[in-house]
Design a protein that fits this description.
single chain, 5 strands, globular
Length: 78
């Protein structure tokens, strides 16, 4: 199973990437733990998580093959 992770704004600078593919991950919570261990600076930044273009309001979600997860930094309208 593969999932696509997209990074936006300052988060793409912290990870030096706009997107990555992760294999063999079963839940959103496990993915977040993996990403925050791999990219420790993520722990000190606030961000929202989008799963298949919808904001995920909790992390207790099982992932499916080809899910798209985006990490979104805070943003302001104007």
């Amino acid at each position: 199973m593969k999932v696509k992770i997209l990074f936006f704004g300052v988060l793409s600078e912290l990870t030096n990437s706009n997107q990555i593919i992760i294999e063999n991950i079963d839940s959103l919570q496990n993915l977040i733990s993996l990403l925050e261990n791999k990219y420790e600076k993520l722990k000190s930044h606030k961000y929202q998580i989008s799963l298949n273009k919808e904001i995920a309001h909790n992390t207790d979600i099982l992932l499916k093959d080809m899910d798209e997860i985006a990490l979104l930094p805070p943003f302001a309208g104007g």
